[in-house]
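Objective 1b. Sequence-to-structure analysis of VOC family protein.
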Amino acid sequence: MRISGATIGAPDPGALAQFYSDLLGWPSEIEKNWAQVRSPGGDGLSTLNFEIEPDYVRPTWPSRPGEQQIMTHLDIAVDDLAAAVAWAEELGAVPADHQPQSDVRVMLDPAGHPFCLFTND
């Protein structure tokens, strides 16, 4: 067995898929209420799928009692952390207020899902 993809709930699957397509440089397929970005190399996690969540509530980071909890997040390896943060911000991501590690940047995508940028050093 191997995990080939992950599915993420979103209020606008097409917009979120376009964000990750641009961020990662992966091609996208966008349909009504569903979208996918696919790794051109097919290595590791090869697809990110996005499904409509009509009652979507943005998660909080860090998690706080009584508020929407984070169900999952993506870890994205990069060569240049500062350049990756700048690129993510240009595409609409924002840095999270809480940054627990100096060599990792927790970012929030346009729908509020956290993802981590880090170098493999």
